[in-house]
Amino acid sequence: MEKSVATLDKGTICSSWNYCGQRLATGLIDGTIAIFDTSDPASSFFTSTYKFKVNEGSIVKVVWVPPENGDAIACICSNGSLLIWEEIAEVESEPVRWKQCKSFGGSLDQVIDCQFGNSITSLKLTIAYSNGNVKVYEILDPMELKDWQLQAEFQNVTDAVTKCGKALCSSASISWSPHRSESRPASFVLGFTSDTPQLNSPKVWEFDQDHQRWLPVAELAEPGDNGDEVYAVAWAPNIGRPFELIAVATSKGISIWQMASNPDPDGRLSIEKVMTFPCHDNKVWQMEWDMSGMTLATTGSDGRVRLWQSNLNGVWHEQAVIEPIT
């Protein structure tokens, strides 16, 4: 039986659950952020507890900071700025409030996507810009969200010598590897929708600890893809698989890629496209894996949410379709 868990404000255009699913942040077209909480831990209904204006334009994306860094969110605004807000109580007797602690980008350096990633040593933040550049920031003190340091800046190309010049990018999608251990380097996958084919195809970037630099270790594309525009990427959690799974959405549909967990002698990770299936009538907006990495949820311009699973033979199929409520 269907059950409502929250009543969102009119004009809500994006949302994000925190890592334990106990808080919901939503972004509105008027530049307002709303935070939803539940008063009873046993209840599954959420009500709005905080609202604050962060920008004169609309909020196009909101994402929670990992929980070990406190209660904080990052939001991308329609003017290209990225703002980080944290929940604080400056005086113990006073109620908590939300305060902006950091901003990135703007009208001349527009942010089109961002994603947090945790390594053993620090919290990291990958930001993709409309000019095709990628920046990775890190913060060494987990409780000082205003003190970000630029760790690296590069373009999403496999050849370090190649420079694409100034590109025009309308969107990007970043997904960090969910794994966090001393034996696994920090890594993420990134793809663009742009006028520059070399930037578009999804690349897996891995941090080389010995040389303190980010290196492209795999390109999730086949020779005939011709730099297809990438709408979304999603890296699956791995519970016992000898390989990684990454989903990539383009105009051709959704592709599931297998990637080796260990590099070859040249430092590259072998890849294989195991399945491509059409999804949604026009464009995929977002993809998310469940905690086990066994079910992929997708949503797109047809207004539906689709759930995809693989059978015991490794064949992917549509498990369920959730229709929009009219």
UniProtKB/TrEMBL annotation:
Molecular function GO labels: structural molecule activity
Keywords: Nucleus, Protein transport, Repeat, Transport, WD repeat
A single GO cellular-component term on record: Seh1-associated complex
SUPFAM superfamilies assigned: WD40 repeat-like
First and last residues of every WD repeat: 277-309
Domain of life: Eukaryota
UniProt-listed InterPro entries: Sec13/Seh1_fam, WD40/YVTN_repeat-like_dom_sf, WD40_repeat_dom_sf, WD40_rpt
UniProt-listed GO biological process terms: cellular response to amino acid starvation; positive regulation of TORC1 signaling; protein transport
Entries under Pfam families matching the protein: WD40
Record localization: Nucleus envelope
Predominant location: nucleus
Family: Belongs to the WD repeat SEC13 family.
PANTHER family: NUCLEAR PORE COMPLEX PROTEIN SEC13 / SEH1 FAMILY MEMBER (PTHR11024), NUCLEOPORIN SEH1 (PTHR11024:SF3)
Record protein name field: WD40 repeat-containing protein
Natural source organism: Cynara cardunculus var. scolymus
Organism placement in taxonomy: Eukaryota, Viridiplantae, Streptophyta, Embryophyta, Tracheophyta
